[in-house]
Amino acid sequence: QVQLGESGGGLVQAGGSLRLSCAASGNICSINAIGWYRQAPGKQRESVAVITSVRTTNYIDSVKGRFTISRDNAKNTVYLQMNSLKPEDTAVYYCTAAQLLRDATLYHYWGQGTPVTVSS
Hints:
By secondary structure, the protein is mainly β. The chain contains no helices and eleven strands. It is 0% helix and 59% strand.
């Protein structure tokens, strides 16, 4: 069992920055990777950034060079530092944790979502 608590969303002007936080609790040792998804109005949810238990990272092309995902193990928290924000980054951002189950499938835990609005 894993619980995810998100924070850090808000309203920011284009070119500004935000840092999203995802605090994980529970059986976090079982988590293979934690990442951020986002869902813009009228669009499907898409993966934005992922960090694994061994700190490898991956990003969607549109955020490379602008977003950085990181982990603070002392706080059991994953961050998404978002710089040079663009209006197209506007979305509800969701933290997700992926757990490999006994049958080799992945189970995803989800945070509640935190909205990010970028104005221009």
